[in-house]
Amino acid sequence: MHVWVMFRLVGLGGLAALWVAGVPLRAADYAGVDLRIPIAAQEGGSLEAVMVLPLGGGRHPLVILSHGSPREARDRPGMSARGMMPQLVAFARRGFVAVSVLRRGYGTSVGPWAEGSGPCEKADYARSARAGAADIRTAIAFMTRRDDVDITRIVAVGQSAGGFATVALTADPPSGLVAAISFAGGRGSRPPDSVCDEDALVRAFGTFGRRSHVPMLWIYTENDRYFGPALARRFRAAFQDSGGQVSFVAAPAFGSDGHALFSAPNGRDIWMPIVEAFLVRQGLHLPAVRPSTPSSLKPPKSLGAAGQAAFGTYLDSPGSRAFAVSATGGYGWRTGRVSALEARDGALANCARATGTICRLHAVDDAYVVDP
């Protein structure tokens, strides 16, 4: 198990991180921990996970974040539980022990991928969602053995396929699950604006609605290219008509594909107020921790508007990170790395790939590499 200590909060959910072995070396805002969650029913099986938690003792409510599934199977092994670090921090700032878990078949989680839904013309989406829910349940069972988790206040949050699995989880909820949130939940999107066997997917939502009694929040955007507004409304109708409880939010269009609302760094300003209002209604609202000592780094003067926004994302990103620029105003960055060296090499490579030129470093972590 690796532990890193968050010494300073930067903006909404960004962190400067120092990796250490063992326990924190000094007072800090949060701690982050890499976890391996064993799968009891599968010998040698385990799930990759990352936890971010407030320091200072006591019990905290638990939130489990579950990811989506890429359209291409070849992209599953490259996924990382750290991909949701900004979202983890956003919840940890509100007093949650926040965990992101990769289900079987994704990233370095050990175990066969179990979420297949069968042939397109005869999809079994309920089976797929239940398989995902089983891994979320495993993560919850593991976390509720910790002394710093309040086992009576558990929230499940999922995006896309993870949101659909979260819906399935509410149909057979673990003890302590008091609320659940689905961002653009669904399954079976192949090319944009096309879903394999839509009617089967709608029926699966109805199946889960018959047994779901956990309060849920669903958020879909007007320009979701996976599950568009008309289909999302069918999901809601099937779920509610079967008895499910859901607060449905039709969010405005976001970027080029609103399906990325939860995962995009600039999406938090939209979804967090919606989530906080829902948590208040469930008696789970906790005040956000104020950031300490905001970063004094300034963006490179050569950047245009898009680059300025990218530098803001860099500042709000976790882990060791680096930002590189080219002589022509191009840029690239790398965040969430274990070491500054890894972040530096990644930023230079990303910048060179994006611009086709040699790049130089502007900043590593919270220090300039060249004069601003």
Could you write a compact summary of the structure shown?
With 372 residues, the chain is an alpha/beta fold. The chain has eight helices and 14 strands. Helices cover 28% and strands 26% of the residues.
How would you sum up this structure, described in words?
- The chain is an alpha/beta fold and 372 residues long.
- The chain contains eight helices and 14 strands.
- It has helices spanning 85-92, 125-143, 161-171, 198-209, 229-241, 268-281, 305-315, 340-355, and strands at 3-10, 14-20, 30-38, 46-54, 60-66, 97-101, 149-159, 177-183, 216-221, 246-251, 320-326, 331-337, 359-364, 367-368.
- Strands 2-1-3-4-6-5-7-8-9-10 form a ten-stranded mixed β-sheet, sandwiched between helices. Strands 12-11-13-14 form a four-stranded antiparallel β-sheet, with helices on both faces.
- β8 (177-183), α4 (198-209) and β9 form a beta-alpha-beta unit.
- Mean pLDDT is 87; it is low at 4-28.
